Amino acid sequence: MQTKEKIAAAIKAAVAEAMKDGALKFSDALPEVALEVPPKKEFGDFATNFAMQSAKIFRTSPRKIAEEIKARIDPELFEKIEIAGAGFMNFYLRSDVIYRELKNIYDAGENFGSLPNKNNVTIQIEYVSANPTGLLHVGHGRGAAAGSAIVNILRTAGYNVESEYYINDAGNQMDNLTKSVNARYLELLGKEVAFPENGYLGVDIIDTTKRIIARDGDKYLNLPEEERLKILGELAYEDKMHELKKDLKNFRVKFDVWFSERTLHPEKINAAIEILKSSGGIYEKDGALWLASTKFGDDKDRVVVRENGEPTYLAADIAYHKNKFDRGFGELINLWGADHHGYVARVKAAMKMLGYDADKLKIIFLQMVSLFRGGEAVKMSKRAGTAIPLRELMEEVGTDAARYFFLMRSTESQLDFDLDLAKSQSADNPVYYIQYAHARICSIFRQTAEAGLKLEGEPKFSLMNSAAEIDLINKIFEYPAEIEKAAAEYAPQRIARYVYDLASTFSSFYRDCRILGVEKDLAIARLALIKITQHTIQHALNLLGVSAPERM
């Protein structure tokens, strides 16, 4: 049990004792004991507002609750306990407790930060899910970075998670892809052809067509058009999926499941519609079928099957989410672009009509990304003349910088991405600053090894008592709690901020605390603390999908 958990358990035991002897009268379920690391050392090693949170339950003042807890809490862990303000409790740990906890972390090695399995239901996270008709752009990149980091964080926090990409490979967009590639195919082979009105004009369509010709030549040129369209449509789809998966792999994103929309047509869509019809959730009007979503908070009812009998995107989404619930996931998380805000009510309405718990479906919205170079907004790809492809961003700033910059702000905030800063090799660039701290640690180990100083035996952590040493120790202690919070809030920016702060705290330690040239036992203790710091930086960067280089 970690020190934080021991403090929480001690508070609960003190509360139970106070309730037993009547000093506190219980009337409802107690809140969880939330412990925080105070921003300043003078406020203790840990603090809680439990007394304030439970005041209504005990029907007494927070300060009295805090006093009753303090009077009964096991003093083994604490040097002192202070009650501040209206009822905050500040806990000052005994130094031997701090050093025992540090030893436990040291013994855990690279496993420090990985929390116990919660044996809970499986959470499904679906993200990116871009149409396979063009290259992934920077907006998709933000979703890919956020989704993959959230998956990593939840798994590390002990949750069961399955990640999924929903391939929108049915409908008009696929027809337009087929017609676009067919037109480029004929053009590149010397035929005059009118480009389709709704065709895709991107350079990537020409690239796809060139790859088909490079492999198969003109073998489809003289086929009947219907046959040629069918073949080229499938070849284009395969090529687009190959390029899409290649970009995601290069961006360090891996999915457990790739789910094809085609598998929903027509049986699963028709089955969902029939259930909704029988429950009164769908009605007919003007030759079309409508979802009565206003019954569940939508601003208007929505068409699910058009007059011509073709299902809408909503019909496929209803069938898809029904399929998710039927697979038995305990929680569904979708990462959607901010322009999908209005879509939530209609999808949740359909799930309620189908008899599912729509509250199990959570939507995380991704706000816009704006790129800046030289202080000016960058809107178009130099090559394609369209939205900036993710692969161009990776080529310009690197995968590490791209991922970190996408993750250092909440998904709910618009992101101004400074390309010049992302490429700079300076302390102003946060990802460079963090990676440099890790590389510096690796350099320290090379230097100490050359000097004959090795990490061996039992480090005497109690020799470390300077402000810089204790600050670094306390910052490391915060890490498991940051993972828990990041998981609970689906907030990878917490880890991005934490590892930056850890690198900063380490830099202060490095400035103030020598390794070589001090007494050997102290040098080994400091070297052990640096090893813990290295593992923690590596672990946090790994959650973010960012590398931890040994040399820079």
Summarize the structure.
The protein is α/β, with parallel strands linked by helices and 552 residues long.
What characteristics describe this protein?
552 residues, alpha/beta, 5-stranded parallel beta sheet, 4-stranded antiparallel beta sheet, 20 helices, 50% helix, 13% strand
Fold and architecture overview:
With 552 residues, this protein is of the alpha/beta class. It contains 20 helices and 15 strands. β13 and β14 form a beta hairpin.
Helix content: 40-55%
Question: Could you list the spans in which at least 5 consecutive residues all have pLDDT below 50?
Answer: none
Structural class based on helices, strands and sheet pairing: alpha/beta
Put simply, the count of helices is 20
Mind sketching the topology for me?
Elements: H1 3-20, E1 35-36, E2 46-48, H2 50-53, H3 55-58, H4 62-72, E3 78-84, E4 88-93, H5 95-108, E5 122-126, H6 138-156, E6 160-167, H7 172-188, H8 203-216, H9 225-250, E7 257-260, H10 267-278, E8 282-285, E9 288-291, E10 302-305, H11 313-326, E11 331-337, H12 343-353, E12 361-366, E13 369-373, E14 376-378, H13 390-397, H14 399-407, E15 415-418, H15 419-423, H16 430-450, H17 467-477, H18 479-489, H19 492-512, H20 520-544
Parallel strand pairs: 5-6, 5-11, 6-7, 11-12, 13-15
Antiparallel strand pairs: 1-2, 2-4, 3-4, 8-9, 9-10, 13-14
